[in-house]
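Q: Hi! First time doing this. I have a protein sequence and I read that you can turn it into a structure. Is that right? Here it is:
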Amino acid sequence: MDDDDWLTTRFDAHRAHLRAVAHRMLGSDSEADDAVQEAWLKLSRADTQEVENVGGWLTTVVARVCLDMLRSRRSRREEPLESESDAPVGGTPESEVALADAIGPALLVVLDMLGPQERVAFVLHDMFDLSFEEIAPIVERTPEATRQLASRARRRVRGATAPAVPVAQHRELVSTFLAAAREGAFDRLVAMLSPEVVMRSDERAVHISAANQRKGAPLLAPEMRGASVVANVFNGRAQGISTAVIDGQPGAVWAMKGHVHTAWLFTVEGDKVVAIDCIMEPARIAQLDVRID
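A: Yes, that's right. Below is the predicted 3D structure, encoded as structure tokens:
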């Protein structure tokens, strides 16, 4: 295997993790993809012979790229960074991790309130378990100052997300939705969908659905709107589909022998599904961080 093939293989092995890190920091699919692509460019140009931990090196690179993007975003908004006391806040490591896991998709909204360095420190430590010693060079602070950044961010996140519905409830809604789909319970499906729900399908999904009409596949379009229309796509189907957590959000997959062929990302607000994204493009699926239930 030549050097280019070796680099490509190592990068692909970490791609899903890197995209999950970038998405958590940036809250945008397109920006996360840009950050991961920038990491690849830096890897391909760097002398990696002395790099012992490629995954850690790539995570650091993506984090720095995201920090620059957050700073640029903040500058465009012309919002001054807020300053708060750096006094430490109590809490065990276990409770900190539980906080990050429980917030789920709502966290992306809350993170916009944080300064770029706070956001990076919180995400890398509380959600991806990097030490403050590892994060400190990225945010250009001492380990102790980095600890305070994460502590301050955690305090603000706790205060802002107290009313948020836990991800576990959203996952339960997705599970109930799929059960209703299997049973052909059309009215129950409609009841779980927002009247303005939108379903988006990628080009491959649209093509495959059209080619399998005689086998009972639903007819998909790039974008479909309305509870009845979306419910009809799933009604009487969903056999073999499993619930999953995809990039930290509730979702579902159709997989064989652990290989995901189709992924559905559900966006839930309150007790209603407001959006579903159907993904079948292999390259896009490879970028997802999927945990099948």
